[in-house]
Amino acid sequence: MEPKQIKEGYMVKKGTVLNTWKVVWVVLSEDGVEFFKRKTDSAPKGMIPLKGAVLTSPCQDFSKRTLVFKLRTAKNQDHYFQATHLEERDYWVKDIKRAITCLQGDRKFTRKSTRRSIRLPDTVNLNELYILMRDQEDGVKELKLEKQKRVYNHCFTGGTVVDWLISKDKARNRPEALMLATGLLNEGFLQPAGDVSKEAVEGGAESAVLDDPDALYYFADSGFFCEGYSSDEDVIVKEEFRGNIIKQGCLLKQGHRRKNWSVRKFILRDDPAYIHYYDPTKGDEYPLGSIHLRGSVITAVEFVPDAKRYDVDGNLFEIITSDETHYFFQATTAEERKEWIKAIHTVSKTGK
Questions:
Q1: Confidence of residue 284 (pLDDT cuts 50, 70, 90)
Q2: Which intervals hold domain PH (predicted)?
């Protein structure tokens, strides 16, 4: 009997021979993880057996890459994957861990609710705590801070996190607050920004979060970006990134010149209404481009007029901007296409 397919989607994977990171289509089954060069390929580039494997998440082997997890096989071969956002990483990690556990017990794969594996009291729910911290009115305030000739946007200090946890009766004292903050960082809810906080994480300190005014952090799904001192014109460009992140993930996008299709990571923001797209292998610091969505028309389409040969089929949609520029995209499923169209349509009507 063929192994049951559990999950599939785009992720970034580190090469096992060369140290290059490339986008691959990943399929998780009951007994292994297959990865393909393209979603449409019939044969995988490789297969990772899960029997006896160990998953490490978060994996901090790469200081410049976040949201990475590591799969070590029974033969001690390491495979590294990088998700595009926190929720996606958590979904993959949870299902892969469950598949490994079921294999060890010789059971069929079934999903069940599991508590995050960190050493905190049973009464602590990190997910609920994170939601409270992100509250626009009563949560941790995101600031624009200057340190060592660099400007950090949408961030806060470790001391700010500690103060907030104590003020909201989530911790009785500063050591207890640091323990909670470290749990949030270990689970990927918080990310280090700047040399001081990154050195603490990489150095394996007992408390990965520092109660220090020079230690900066940001929310994993925030609009964080860092820049050097810049001109007024640069500041105007950065206004595009002020909006809250509404949705993010990978889609296929058609290029404007060669009309070829490439996997890109997209981040949709409101007010101002922009969608930025990135090379998933390079990180979120510098987008490849952006689309101003105010006044745009977003529709599902059945075909792309000038698509090349085998390129795409199904789950297509189009954005026509106010200056009549056409952009074509492909989602992985009909449901995903519906979600993106709804989210972009809302932003195009409400954002400026």
A1: low
A2: 4-101, 244-349
What percent of the chain stands above pLDDT 70? 86
* Distance (Å, whole) CA 96 – CA 29: 9
Nearest 5°: CA angle at 134, between 182 and 346?
Answer: 140
Model pTM? Answer: 0.63
Residue 156 pLDDT grade (very low, low, confident, very high; cuts 50, 70, 90): very high
